[in-house]
Amino acid sequence: AGATVQVERRTCTMMVRAAVLGRRVTAGLHVRRRALTTAPNSEGPTVISLNKVFGGTQGRYTHFSESTGTEMAFAVYIPSIDTAENGDEKYVGAYSPYVIWLSGLTCDDSNFTMKAGAQRYFERDRLVCVCPDTSPRGLGLPSEDDAYDFGSGAGFYVDATEAPWSTNYKMDTYVNEELPAYIEKHFPVCNRKSIMGHSMGGHGAITSFLNHPGKYESVSAFSPICNPSEAPWGRKALEGYLGSDKETWKKYDASRLLHAMQDAGESVPQMLISVGSDDDFLNEQLHIGSLPTTNNVTVKLEDGYDHSYYFISTFIEEHVRWHAKALF
């Protein structure tokens, strides 16, 4: 495993040096901008918007997803291409590692990019950030838009097995298989990646990390729903998408997965979790205390903070650094 990581790191570095030497610098942003202005359902994504922020480029795009059978919006921040004053290469925006951010209930791909102020830290640490939407949209399914905590904006990062959701609500496959492959094909990134998220997205980040071993270098979460089998939000979503058999819920329950690892004598992976002491959902929905006690799970209870993006924006730098250390 160590040898594989070494090779991947060298591959990223070699591609970065090629970019600095001019063989792919323009492909990193300018040429790809032109390629991204393609028609819906074609090979490349369609540009919704491109904005310069903290020196890099924040883009919003759509593409057709085979997993969900719908157009899916997603956002990508690409740090600037940079060189040192003496002309030697620094790490550049082209072929960077990347971090996937998963948002919470009612959110879409734009909440994090507009509210967290995280681009300055991705720029500093030369990381690309990818933000998928939280569900398929516009399918016209019964009750799809009736509640904030189920259906549109509430895909819970599971692969649904219950009709009528099972055809399109394949967010596990989309986030962990289809989207990374698509990003690595169409954007200037290498294949080293990490994952993090907030609330429902924190649940999605941890379960994605645990259910796809070796895919991600690190994981962190803000205010995650740790034990959805025992939380109102989680029970509603898991039963609606997966059915009433709670054994099928285990795959998407971070607490149950981690306790099963401990019971099997396996080492629990390192993860960083931040939660506010004044979070209105701390006791009823998040169930942070259900996580196993282990030195590898760092839980930081931040005094006086709530569930909002004010909280996230205060501590996002720490999380970006957590991932940067794992990715470089």
Structural commentary:
The protein is an alpha/beta fold. It has eleven helices and nine strands. The protein has helices spanning 2-20, 25-28, 30-36, 111-115, 119-125, 171-186, 200-211, 232-242, 254-263, 282-286, 309-327; strands at residues 46-53, 56-64, 71-78, 96-102, 128-132, 189-198, 219-222, 271-276, 297-302. A nine-stranded mixed sheet has the order 1-2-3-5-4-6-7-8-9, sandwiched between helices. Helix 10 links the parallel strand 8 and strand 9 (297-302). The radius of gyration is 19 Å and the shape is globular.
Give a nutshell description of this structure.
Residues 1-11, 13-41 and 82-93 have low confidence and may be disordered. The protein has 11 helices and 9 strands.
Radius of gyration: 19 Å
Tell me, what's the shape?
A: globular
Query: How much is the average pLDDT?
Result: 87
Strand content: 15-25%
Distance between the termini: 16 Å
Largest sheet, in brief, is: 9 strands, mixed
Which SSEs are present, and which pair or pack?
Blueprint: H1 2-20, H2 25-28, H3 30-36, E1 46-53, E2 56-64, E3 71-78, E4 96-102, H4 111-115, H5 119-125, E5 128-132, H6 171-186, E6 189-198, H7 200-211, E7 219-222, H8 232-242, H9 254-263, E8 271-276, H10 282-286, E9 297-302, H11 309-327
Parallel strand pairs: 4-5, 4-6, 6-7, 7-8, 8-9
Antiparallel strand pairs: 1-2, 2-3, 3-5
Keywords:
328 residues, alpha/beta, 9-stranded mixed β-sheet, 9 strands, 19% strand, globular, disordered N terminus
